[in-house]
Write a sequence for this structure.
């Protein structure tokens, strides 16, 4: 009976984590869409200004005319990482130690 209770508690914890992850993805999608709409005028202005530069001026900043559109695509396609957590037993403890190193420049 006790094992059944533990199993149902573990299943419920996994279900709650899945709900939180789903909600986070949905809200992340809405934030991304809102940000894209809000930033569009500024991005369009920058693209227009870059388009007005001569080929020589673009070369000075390391761009070609064909790369102007891709500059903005690179910002959107940055790799992202998702951290997943697993349910931890109540009696276990975790110790984390961090060492700081100073590097001279």
């Amino acid at each position: 009976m006790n094992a059944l209770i533990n199993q149902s508690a573990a299943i419920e914890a996994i279900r709650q984590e899945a709900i939180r992850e789903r909600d986070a993805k949905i809200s992340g999608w809405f934030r991304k869409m809102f940000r894209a709409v809000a930033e569009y005028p500024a991005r369009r202005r920058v693209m227009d200004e870059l388009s007005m530069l001569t080929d020589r001026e673009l070369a000075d900043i390391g761009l070609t005319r064909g790369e102007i559109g891709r500059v903005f695509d690179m910002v959107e396609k940055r790799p992202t990482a998702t951290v997943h957590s697993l349910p931890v037993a109540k009696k276990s403890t975790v110790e984390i130690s961090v060492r700081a190193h100073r590097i001279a420049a």
